[in-house]
C-alpha cells in the first residue's frame, strides 16, 4: 500500500489532495496507467505490464466486443431501471442459464457491496435472525452492514456480537479433514450464537476464500458446512464476486466446484469487465418476504448499458472458451509455480483452481509466513513488468489472478519473473 511520503511524485500528491485519506493506491511508488489491452497494461512512461492483479477486466482489458456493446447501447438508450428494455431481460435470462433453477430472481446493483448488503438483509428477513458467520480475513464490501461482516476491513475495534469470524477451511486449521474441520468451526460459531441469545441468519463465504489466502481444495468441502448452517435454520450466501464467471475453470461459479446450491449468490467485479455492475440471485419467496417490508430500488443497477456489457461478457466467455482456458492455462501455471516451490523452500505452498492461485511465501528456516519477502517479491515482479498483489491473514500469500484470456507464454513469463524476483 502507498504511504504518504514514500514518493513525492506530483501525480500522487494531486491524487491525495483530491481523495484524501480514502485514497487507495497500489505500490509505494504508484503507477500512472494510460491504456490496456488483453492481459497487458501500459503506463504513462511507456512501460508495459503483464496484469496478474486482474479480477475486473477478466475477459481481457478493453475487450472489443464489450467496448462495442457498451458504445452501441449508450448511444441508443440508457436510463433508470423503471422501463422495460429488452436487452436487460435478454441479459438476465442469459445469466440465469448459469444459475441453479431455484435462484430464479436476480436483483441488479452497482457494486458487490450493495449485493452483499441486500443479501444480508434478505437473510435476516427470511430467517428472523441477525447472526452472520464469516471467515477471519474475509472482505465482503463497504456498506455499514457489510463492513461489520468484513474482518479484513476493520483496522481497529472488534466485530459486533452478531458477527462471528471462523478460520478459513485449510489444512493448517482443519488437518486433512478440511470439510469436517470447516463444518465444526461453523457448528462452534452456531453454539456461540446460541450462548449469546442470537438467532443465526447466514453463513456468508467467498467460495474460493480470496482474502483469506485462496482455499480451493478438495472440491466439495463446503457442503458439510452448508448442511450445518441449514440445520440451524439459517442460509448460505455464496459471495461469487471473486471466483465467479469462469475463473476457477472447473465450474462457472466457485460454489459449482462444491456441488452445492446456495440460498443466495452475490456477484460483481468481472460481471461487466470493468463496467460497474453487480447483482444478487435469490429465491423468489425470500425476495418477496423482504420486499413486503421495505422494497428495493436501485437507480443504476441493471441499466441497459450494464446489461449490454454483461451480455457481451457472457458471450465472450462462451465464444472464446475462457472457462476452459482458465482450467487449462491455470493448470500449467499451477504446475510451473509448483516447480518453483520444489526448488525453493521459501515458496511454502501453491494451491488454487483455474486462474485463481495462492502462493504462500515463508521464512526458509522457521517456515513462518513472510510478509516482508512478499512485499519484496511484489516489488521485484513489478520491476520485471508483472503486476501482482497479496492476500491472507499475514499478507504473505501472492494472489495470482490474471485475466481469463491468459496465453500459455504469458503464464511462462509470469513464472520466470517470479523466479527472478525470488533471486
Ligand atoms: N466480496 C468480495 C469477495 C470482494 O472481493 C469484494 C471487493 N473486493 C466485494 C465483495 C465488494 O465488491 P465492491 O468493491 O464491488 O463493492
TrEMBL record:
<dbReference type="InterPro" id="IPR015422">
    <property type="entry name" value="PyrdxlP-dep_Trfase_small"/>
</dbReference>
<dbReference type="InterPro" id="IPR005814">
    <property type="entry name" value="Aminotrans_3"/>
</dbReference>
<dbReference type="GO" id="GO:0008483">
    <property type="term" value="F:transaminase activity"/>
</dbReference>
<dbReference type="Pfam" id="PF00202">
    <property type="entry name" value="Aminotran_3"/>
</dbReference>
<protein>
    <submittedName>
        <fullName>4-aminobutyrate aminotransferase</fullName>
    </submittedName>
</protein>
<dbReference type="InterPro" id="IPR049704">
    <property type="entry name" value="Aminotrans_3_PPA_site"/>
</dbReference>
<comment type="similarity">
    <text>Belongs to the class-III pyridoxal-phosphate-dependent aminotransferase family.</text>
</comment>
<dbReference type="InterPro" id="IPR015421">
    <property type="entry name" value="PyrdxlP-dep_Trfase_major"/>
</dbReference>
<keyword id="KW-0663">Pyridoxal phosphate</keyword>
<keyword id="KW-0032">Aminotransferase</keyword>
<dbReference type="InterPro" id="IPR015424">
    <property type="entry name" value="PyrdxlP-dep_Trfase"/>
</dbReference>
<dbReference type="GO" id="GO:0030170">
    <property type="term" value="F:pyridoxal phosphate binding"/>
</dbReference>
<keyword id="KW-0808">Transferase</keyword>
